[in-house]
Design goal:
Metallo-beta-lactamase, Chain A; Nonspecific Lipid-transfer Protein, Chain A; iron-sulfur; 6-stranded mixed beta sheet; alpha+beta; 519 residues; Rieske Iron-sulfur Protein; 5-stranded mixed beta sheet
Length: 519
């Protein structure tokens, strides 16, 4: 998205090239726009380091190096370091949640989210004001509330994510009926979260952005929402408008590549390269044409992955074991061995050729020894070879988001597994350990009443305000921000290990400590 004002232009998250092992492509296709002109801007804003937002090749080739980068206040310097490598030299380090006035009266504010589970160590939203018109580019950030933006004045244009951006539940080795049921639940939660954000901000106009991706590789084609699967987590913008209408939404505006929307304090007028309804009515034809056009791109990427010279076990030991030694909270949170089954290429029949265990309690990486594991990942060996070859520090926002793997687990979701594998550098790991240490030691003393229960105000997961996101049904609490559930009598989290909630019945005299049952 490009924001143009009389005081300057801001290019936001320009993503054109495929991401995550050539799995994700932007849809609708934006690769044929005039990027020489679009990249000639005054300011660049990249919300976070996910590769469907941070397109290094595109930034290097097309975006003016005279542009000033509006930099979120993230806990590590990775984004600035990567942008400097691409040739950018001008940076405005925006203090978190503070309005900054730029030249000509253009004002901006960036809210940075810094939990280890927010993007790859950070996500952010951009607020912009010029001549009385205010815009919030929330993108796919998930703040616990939007009051910091609302307090700055009425917002006229609200851009936010509505579709899926994850591998769950598609990659799990489950019966299809279970996948469909879980996918349907996730799809509904995505929309519920979107409606809540829209209702919080009450902007004049709502623009669905930041998704969904499309999948053009034949092996991933089934993930596109064109097969009538009610459990597909990637609904497109036309579905957004339909679902939004069901809850009374009438102010949605869909943008196609090349669309221009002029927003004022009194309204918005939008022009499109083709009619929106007509475009989405021909979605399958657009995808099929795009698949054929991008096939050489996918094949070229696949040819670059094989590195048979890499000793996978040896390199995993060299890189991961020092991090296991440093880890306290993440290793304890994982609590057991995680197994990687590496398979050969398609011409080898897809048989497992090596199984490697990351043993968190034992602090080592070793060959699988037929023991029971709670988490297992199965993927092509070439993908792990490539990650090790390029020194990738974030396997979550590369391998896992590619959906080029299958997974199985025993028991609940464990966020610590994914937190660890996005922190494969000392800098990232130390930050994550410090964050969990701080939040482990910080007690949330404030309680609220929900139904028949008194519970801590902040969700134990990511501190969402349960006065806004909490729903009690019987003895179960659901935090709607991420769909996490808790058993109130015991305090136990039903969604993931750890994260106990403090709760007691409203008619009880004494609250129980977090996780202890009330008699």
């Amino acid at each position: 998205m490009r924001i143009d004002t009389a005081a300057g232009s801001i290019l936001c998250d320009p993503w054109v090239n495929p991401a995550y092992f050539a799995s994700w492509f932007p849809f609708p296709d934006n690769s044929q726009l005039d990027w020489e002109a679009l990249g000639d801007v005054d300011y660049l804003y990249v919300s976070h380091l996910h590769r469907d937002h941070f397109d290094a090749a595109h930034l290097k080739r097309y975006v003016s190096k005279d542009a000033t980068v509006l930099l979120p206040e993230f806990p590590t310097s990775e984004m600035e370091d990567e942008l400097r490598e691409l040739g950018f030299t001008k940076f405005l380090r925006a203090p978190n949640e503070q309005v900054v006035e730029l030249d000509g009266g253009l004002k901006i504010m960036i809210q940075a989210l810094t939990s280890p589970t927010d993007g790859p160590i950070g996500d952010s939203s951009l607020w912009v004001e010029y001549d009385g018109v205010r815009l919030l580019n929330q993108n796919d950030a998930r703040p616990t509330d939007l009051s910091v933006f609302a307090e700055l004045g009425h917002v006229h244009a609200h851009m936010l994510q509505f579709s899926g951006a994850i591998w769950y539940p598609m990659v799990y080795e489950l019966p299809q009926a279970a996948k469909t049921a879980f996918g349907k639940q996730k799809r509904e939660r995505q929309f519920d979260r979107t409606w809540r954000y829209i209702d919080d901000l009450k902007a004049d106009h709502v623009f669905p952005i930041a998704g969904p991706p499309c999948f053009l590789d034949d092996a991933l084609w089934q993930f596109n929402d064109i097969h009538g699967d009610e459990g597909n987590i990637f609904p497109d913008q036309s579905v957004f408008l339909s679902e939004y209408a069901k809850v009374g939404g009438t102010n949605g505006i869909v943008l196609l590549p090349g669309s221009v929307s002029e927003v004022t304090t009194s309204g918005a007028s939008t022009t499109h390269p083709v009619p929106v309804e007509e475009f989405f009515a021909d979605k399958i034809a657009h995808l099929e044409e795009m698949r054929e056009r991008k096939r050489p791109v996918i094949e070229a990427e696949k040819a670059s992955w094989r590195h048979p010279e890499v000793d996978v076990l040896g390199e995993m030991k060299r890189r991961i074991e020092p991090l296991l030694d440093e880890s306290i909270y993440l290793a304890k949170g994982v609590g057991g061995p995680v197994r990687f089954d590496l398979v050969g290429t398609d011409d080898s029949g897809g048989e497992t050729i090596e199984s490697i265990v990351v043993d968190f309690p034992g602090k080592e990486v070793r060959p699988y020894a037929d023991e029971k594991v709670r988490y297992r990942f199965r993927t092509e060996r070439a993908l792990i070879e490539h990650l090790l070859h390029i020194g990738e520090v974030d396997w979550v926002n590369s391998l896992f988001l590619s959906c080029r793997f299958s997974a199985a687990r025993i028991g609940q979701y464990n966020e610590f597994v994914y937190a660890f594998f996005k922190c494969l550098s000392t800098e990232r790991l130390q930050y994550a350990e410090g964050w969990y240490d701080e939040h482990e030691r910080t007690s949330d003393a404030e309680d609220i009443t929900l139904g028949d229960w008194v519970v801590q105000r902040r969700c134990p997961h990511l501190k969402a305000d349960l006065t806004r996101f909490g729903i009690v049904d019987g003895d179960q609490l659901t935090c709607q921000l991420h769909g996490w559930k808790f058993d109130l009598p015991s305090g136990r989290c039903l969604t993931s290990v750890g994260h106990k909630v403090r709760a007691h019945r409203a008619d009880a005299n004494t609250p129980a400590p977090a996780g202890e049952a009330v008699g």
